[in-house]
Amino acid sequence: MKMANTWTGSFPVEDRAVDGFKGTAPVKSFPPNEFGLYDMAGNVWEFVADWFHPDYFRNSPKLNPPGPSVGYDPNEPDLPKKVIKGGSFLCSPLYCTGYRPGSRMFNDPDSSADHTGFRCVKN
Length: 123
Hints:
By secondary structure, the chain is mainly beta. Helices cover about 5% and strands about 15% of the residues. It has one helix spanning about 55-60, and strands at about 45-50, 80-85, 105, 115-120.
C-alpha cells in the first residue's frame, strides 16, 4: 500500500500513477501517520514558518530551534527563501528523496509552482 503521492515510473517520461494519482492528490488520500497527521510527505512541498539560512543550524539551540529571523540564499542574496518540507508528487527514489521526514529544501514564498503548498498547524 502506498503511503504518499510520489512519482512512480521513469522520471520525467512516465508517471505510472501506482499510488493512484498523476499530479496532486486530494487531501487525506492516504492514511495518517502515527501522530494522526495527514499528508506530511509527498503530494506537494509544503512551506513552513521557518526562513531558510544555510548556516542557521550550526549555532542554533539543539532543542526546538525557532528558525532564523530572515531568509538568506547565497545564490540569490536579494531573494529571501522559506523552508519547504515533505517532498512532492515529483519526488522519486531515483533522483529525489525529499519525502523523508528529515529532508528540507527552500523556495521563494511567491513561487507559483504546482508542486508547492503550505502546512496548516493547530496548537
